Amino acid sequence: MRHERRDHREKIYIYGKHALTEALTHTPHVVSKVFLSSEANQDKDLRELLRSRSISPAMLKTPRDASDMVGEDTAHQGVIAIADPSKILRDFNEFFATLTPDENTALVLLDELTDPHNVGAIIRSAAAFGAVGVLIPPHNQAPITGSVVKASAGMAFRIPIVAIGNINQTILKLKDEGFRAYALAMEGAKDVTKVKFDAPSVFVIGNEGRGIRQKTLEHSDVALRIPMNPRCESLNASVSAAVVLYQWSTQHPGALRRS
User: Fold this and answer.
1) What are the DSSP E strand ranges found in 57-214?
2) Residue 128 three-state SS
3) Strand order of the sheet with strand 180-184?
4) Across the chain, which distance is largest between two alpha carbons, in Å?
């Protein structure tokens, strides 16, 4: 998944059998066209899934055809699809109207992350540990692209990805609705292993370089830190998110059974 233009309204490429299968299974409306190599077209399960979604794939005649779409170094497995990212992203107000938040509800809010692999990995962790949505701002943020989808192992098609406006205003709205806002900060005041998560939670993940902005920290209820050996100064954003979401899930085991 490559060359995806940075505008949410533009098409993106999904590549690889797993990512396409996830999209066709969970959000088939995002897929507009599918291209297969002659080898991939022999996959009976994939052909049946395409048939069930009334999609007739186009054939990739040569390896060059695939490389022209997604790049020579991309492990596409002869499976490439075009998706509309605007159909992956959900409107915040529409999404929130479907929620009935309780202490078993967790959201992840990205505070201007720029690495698509981090974004995809966080989406994967959010799905793995039972969060109900990932909130993404419009500015200074890696958008949903093929690289993000690939890094999420297809989980971008399983967990709601929600477009928000201003980050701080979103946090304030969530707090008005009973959420507690937790900011992940290297120098956070609270050890994540000592916190009781007894309210709807939103976990704010900061930019890879500068972390969470000061104003966002001020709007958050709690700044969380992850205890670690002093030989290591920090963890990257996606690993930190996974650790915190796992810790939250240990207090909310029902979230791991949520479909």
Assistant:
1) 58-59, 79-83, 89-91, 106-111, 133-136, 161-163, 180-184, 190-191, 201-206
2) helix
3) 89-91, 161-163, 133-136, 106-111, 201-206, 180-184, 222-225, 190-191
4) 58
169's tokens = 């205003």
Which two three-digit tokens encode residue 176? 């008005």
Task: State the pairing for strand pair 79-83/12-15.
Answer: antiparallel
Helical packing angle, 44-52 and 17-26, nearest 10° = 30
Cα angle 206, 209, 214 (rounded to 5 degrees) comes to 50
- CA 222/CA 190 separation, integer angstroms: 7
CA-to-CA dists, residue 68 to 38, 48, 64, 114, 148, angstroms: 17, 27, 6, 25, 20
pTM for this structure? Answer: 0.86
Structure tokens at 209: 């370089």
pLDDT tens for each residue of 7-64: 444 678 888 898 899 999 999 999 999 999 999 989 999 999 999 999 999 999 887 8
Candidates 162, 164, 160; CA nearest to 172 is: 164
Contact 106, 132 (CB under 8 A): yes
Single out the residue of 47, 101, 51 nearest to residue 79, CA to CA.
Answer: 47
For all residues of the chain together, what is the average pLDDT?
90
Torsion angle, alpha carbons of 86, 89, 94, 98, to 10: 140
Using DSSP, state whether 120 is helix, strand or coil. Answer: helix
**Site of tokens 């048939």:** 51
CA 151/CA 119 separation, integer angstroms: 8
Distance CA 77, CA 20 (A): 11
